[in-house]
Amino acid sequence: MTEKRIDGKAFAARLRERIGERAAEFAAKAGRKPGLAVVLVGEDPASHVYVRNKHKATVEAGMESFEHRLPAETSQDALLDLVEQLNLDDKVDGILVQLPLPDHLDEQSVIAAIAPDKDVDGFHVVNAGRLATGGEGFVPCTPYGCIMLLKDRLGDLSGKDAVVIGRSNIVGKPMAQLLLNENATVTIAHSRTKDLPEVVRRADIVVAAVGRAEMVKGDWIKPGAVVIDVGINRIERGEGEKARLVGDVDYAGAEENASAITPVPGGVGPMTIAVLLRNTLVAAHRREG
Ligand code: GUN
């Protein structure tokens, strides 16, 4: 019997290995490695960890990593200048500005300044529009990773009842769009949804992306449903003890009913970086024509 636990870490490792092979083929043909530029502004500790992990994975996949660490007090103009410089740099195929930005910076206008064809995060309105209208763009990494895991378990998603809990631009909305593109019947639930447990009980696929520790309870899950938990919530413990990471779903409870479920950590998280590398490789190929 297939294990209920979806091993995103192992899936992502295999994907990264394949991307590494393709990156080497690209480098042999193009005479340069695919390049990813990551911009980090300020001192947010979680962002520093993410950026370090992205750098390591990029280098391991045989790609060039260009890191730009800027002080928290960086001005909007200085940040926009850097983005423009990266847009024009031929060695840079993908640009990622790590979010969140410090409060005085306007995230939307920074994202809008990234050339859509280097927007490997898929956050630019042009790429959001392409996703919504069926064009070839870049899809945000986390939801794309979720779709890969779902298709690996379920094959065809056509006609499945899917509930996405959360409506962020980064996860919830693109996730719903991707499920719709796979011909699922999609409900987007959020903080104002009436009777969330009942909505979730109808679903064959549950994607939780709300950022609230273990809010989705085990008895909300329909027997046989597939559960994808995007949440990463830190639960602080006593003095001197390491914080515990939990998802948006009560794993132990949900596992009893689900046919498959992603753990936290080791589920969706590792997929995000793997898809970022995939998008960078795709960008490199498109730019080289
Ligand atoms: N912050 C948290 N997740 C992400 C992501 O996927 N991309 C960027 N740019 N910032 C993030």
Task: Give a written overview of the molecule.
- The protein has 289 residues and is an alpha/beta fold.
- Helix content is 43%, strand content 15%.
- It has helices at residues 8-30, 45-60, 76-88, 107-113, 125-133, 141-154, 172-181, 196-201, 251-257, 269-288, and strands at residues 35-41, 64-70, 94-97, 161-165, 185-189, 205-208, 226-229, 233-235, 244-246, 260-261.
- A five-stranded parallel beta sheet has the order 5-4-6-7-10, sandwiched between helices. It has a three-stranded parallel beta sheet with strand order 2-1-3, sandwiched between helices. A two-stranded antiparallel sheet has the order 8-9.
- Helix 6 (141-154) crosses helix 7.
- It binds guanine.
- The site of guanine has 8 residues, from strand 3 and helix 6.
The name of the CATH topology of the largest domain is Rossmann fold
User: What does the main sheet amount to?
Assistant: 5 strands, parallel
Q: What is the averaged pLDDT score?
A: 97
Record the strand order, biggest sheet. 5-4-6-7-10
What integer value in Å does the Rg equal? 19 Å
CATH architecture of the largest domain: 3-Layer(aba) Sandwich
User: How many domains is the backbone divided into?
Assistant: 2
Taking pLDDT < 50 over at least 5 consecutive residues as the criterion, the unreliable ranges are none
CATH class of the largest domain: Alpha Beta
Number of helices: 10
Give the overall silhouette.
Answer: globular
Helix-and-strand structural type: alpha/beta
